[in-house]
Amino acid sequence: MTAGPASATRPHNRKQLIVEAAGQVFSERGYHAASMEEIAAGVGISAAALYRHFPNKYALFAECAEVMVDRLVLALREAPSVASLRDVFAAVTRVTVAHRASGGLYRWEARYLEAADRRRLRAKFEQVVGRVTELVAGEFPLPEARLRAVAALGAIGSITMHHTSIAQRRIEDLLLGSALHVAATDPSAAAGSAGLVEPPASPVPRTRRAEILAAAVPLFARDGFATVTNAQIAQAVGLAPSAIYRHYPGKVDILVAACLQAAGLLAQAVERSLEHAAGPRAAVEALAAAYVAYKFEHDALNSVAEAEIAGLPDDLKRPLILAQREHIAVWEQQLRGVRPELDARQARLLVHAGFGVVVEAGRALRWENTPGHRDAVTALVIGALTL
After folding, report:
1. Backbone torsion region of residue 205, taken as left when φ is above 0, otherwise alpha when ψ lies between -120 and 50, otherwise beta
2. What is the dihedral of CA 298, 373, 288, 325, to 10 degrees?
3. Which uninterrupted H or E stretch holds 217?
4. pLDDT digits (tens, 9 = 90+) for 309-345
5. Is 240 helix (H, G, I), strand (E, B) or coil?
6. Is residue 367 packed enough to be buried (19+ CB in 10 Å), middle (13-18) or exposed (0-12)?
7. 353-365: per-residue pLDDT in tens?
8. Most buried of the four, 103, 118, 239, 359, by CB within 10 Å?
9. Where do the HTH tetR-type domain residues begin and end (predicted)?
10. CA dihedral (274, 278, 279, 281) positive or negative
């Protein structure tokens, strides 16, 4: 019996194609918003064919979450034992840039992994961080080698979190330079910056609506918007679940309110930071200190806004995306004032590298909001911008 046309044309690497397509969908839309039908369509197969490779969405998600770190581990294993930090960063950068569309999955969505899968993923990342830390400590004998290593990897990994389009080689060069500068940065270089910045405080919840929002944010940050129920939010406020609807038409409206609050607080931080900045360099340094202060002060609120915005309906997402672009445009303008050789897209890429440093360094420091931590991360952000 001969094989039919479908069998004859079936690609031998179909499972790999599925994982690539799924990783992109999960990265862009989030685990819960993504559907197996959408992923199958991206590969050009039916959902039934997809289920022949993966029994359910979680199995596919878990596979996607490990693929990127497996690639990084392999890249380090293939590097010579005497490889320099530049060589290792170059290998990590090539892998990350080549798979930028699907590589950001671990940053926010990995919280939906089951405990055993999450532990396995962390152990693999630790192999990467450990190797890089050793090289950073050897080549740049400064304090906080591990923090600098994590921050440098954050700069590289930032490419998975935005869509700025530049020639691939230029992206690799910019990210490699940024990561090396971060690794070589003394975390005490911005000592005292924390004392110059007072991030906007969250509004004191004086209404029931504000109390609901304040109770929902830490739940969303810990468990993810999709898994938190109105009953849980109501319980945290001491209300009956039905009472939530008197203040918010639906749970998504609470999320939108959280995202708008985050955008408003960040805008205040930016405005304050630039009030007394004398010149572009001082403005960039002030922006870095203000952004770091904002992230440490409002880590739960900000993580919700960054992790969940992709799953919002387009009409609700649009003003939030616009606010993000306006924020980045301020950074671009000031950075190009210091580094006029950069075009707008190159400056934007480096700004995102700085943001990536904050995310990974902040996580490494468990977002413990101390002046020392904020000073250290601010120095590393400035390093990422290669000033």
Report:
1. beta
2. -30
3. helix 208-223
4. 887 888 988 999 999 999 999 999 999 999 999 999 9
5. coil
6. middle
7. 999 999 999 999 9
8. 103
9. 12-72, 206-266
10. negative
